[in-house]
Amino acid sequence: LQCAIPVFEGLLPKRHNRILLDLLFELATWHGLAKLRLHTESTLRSLDHSTTRLGAILRKFKSTVCEEYDTQNLPSEEAARGRRKAAATAKKPPNKMGQTPTSQKKTKARSFKKRYFNLDTYKLHSLGDYVKAIKRFGTTDNTSTQTGELEHRRPKRFYPRVHKGKHVKGISVHQRRERILHKIKLRNSETGNSQEKLCNNHKNSAPTIPFEEAEDLPFTNPQLHHHMSSDTRHKVDIVRWVGDHEDDPAMMNFIPKLKNHLLSQLLGHENSEAETEFTSEEQNTVTILNNRIYSHKVLRINYTTYDMRRKQDSLNPRTHADIMVLSQEPKTREDGTPEHPYWYARIIGIFHAHVLHTGPNSRTSEPQHMEFLWVRWFGLDQEHPSGWRTKCLHRVGFVDGENEAAFGFVNPEQVIRAVHLMPAFHHGRGTSNLKPSIARPLTEKDEDWVYYYVGMFADRDAVMRFRGGGVGHKSTREATDRFLQDRDVLDLRDDEHPEMETHSDSDDNNDDKEGNSSAGGDENQEEWTDEDDEEEGDYGYGGLSEEESGEETNGSDSDSPDSEADDELGPEDGEGVENEVELLGYSNL
Q1: What is the DSSP letter of 404?
Q2: Which of 95, 157, 96 is nearest to 548 (CA)?
Q3: pTM of the predicted model as reported, rounded to 2 decimal places
Q4: Residue 546 burial class via C-beta count within 10 angstroms: exposed 0-12, middle 13-18, buried 19 and up
Q5: For the residues of 532-576, what is the DSSP string, one character each?
Q6: What is the pairing mode between strands 421-423 and 368-380?
Q7: Are 23 and 64 in contact (CB under 8 A)?
Q8: Could you report the per-residue pLDDT of 363-397, keeping only the tens digit for each?
Q9: Where are the alpha helices (DSSP H) in 301-405?
Q10: What residue spans define the domains of the chain?
Q11: d(Cα 214, Cα 332) in Å, to the nearest integer?
């Protein structure tokens, strides 16, 4: 569900496309609210209303869309069905005529089996009970048995490949070999002189640090907003660097823009994202020592989640480069509607520099360690209806490359957290009026996607940042409360009269009075557990069921809005490749 909307957009005719996208959006909304680890009365009412809307859109989808299409088994599914039938037939004994099943007269070929969208399942039937279950037993992460069940699969993954009499040793050997092969793969350089030369040229000029370079960061204080290495190995002479790329639009006025940004930080201007224009005399009061800035591989952002926990995002210009900051636009537009509270940018480079500030406004005569991000800005598509009321994801695109505001600098202190931006595949690719530039990764081949959708359902915290009302979002609450006005009619009506709820709790109270006074409760009471089979990505076990079944299936992304399980730190997080000897405590004999 996290990525489904951009993928399905435009696949069906227009009259069906809107219904399908509304269904996917409502499914993601319901799933995001149902899996919250901290609920309020407001979020429970929203979940209740989402359940009502989801039931209506599911019925509309079946009656309007499904009836128009003749859905059948895929050829691979039909072939598997035939093999199962043949295997079952072969096991039958001979008939009275002495004929074996294989020698009997063959029947005529049948057409593929038809498939229908079925609403009569317990999974859909139980959706309406979630709100009452959460009120009675707590949030769904407390009642799910999935954690233990999935953890039990971990040692079984290698079991089919090993000697059954010595499976413990065999599993250990397989795990060790997998790590060694991974290390070998990382060490292998790309073949081909032309490609290697192209990559080397890009590495020498790119503002990012190559994959194979390690930049270890120690554990950070979770109370700090961010952490960037102070390493000085990867230095850049900005005068020479700008001269080498004088035809690159991304480098236009690079040094004046950088000095404007540094002055904004030095003078304590609050809105340092909105670059303040300083005169050339004021810019000359800023001196970057040795004309050097120092490039880094990763920036780690610590933030407080909606449920008052501390989390960390690892930002890397090569892999996880998209960020969100608070907008400096007015709170409302000319038509009176709330302005979008966020600005979005893609990190091109992570830098620090030693800066000396002189002149009457200088606060110290000593060089200062200053950190900054070089970014490429996105602009919000104002013509695209988006939000909770319209059931559309917010859509952004790169600012025109010929616009001087397309590139700029951001103080890491202003970064809220990483953001999930998904290409709008239906709208294709373009250049954004940007010539070949080092601002693009080499893999993009000098093109950009025309639009990107903002992943509002990337995880639980993202859902609340785009909904508003997150308990832990104190620093952004004033801005994100604008989203509370962008609600469905059903939500707005209930907010005006919160005492009116779709599902009354009177039945629950009666149950408590009549049959729940004993310690054990009613022995026939339904056990409230969450058995969602499509949630494996929550714990990093996506795809295990396919491996165990031995059937070929198409891989899919996790539907969970909280695929937040932290993977082990690797090279893309600034860490070096694991040392096998240090990891195991011994080396090969």
Answers
A1: G
A2: 157
A3: 0.73
A4: middle
A5: -GGGGGGGT-TTHHHHHH-----------S---PPPPP-GGGTPP
A6: unpaired
A7: no
A8: 888 999 999 999 999 999 999 999 999 999 999 99
A9: none
A10: 1-34+39-83+116-138, 198-488
A11: 45
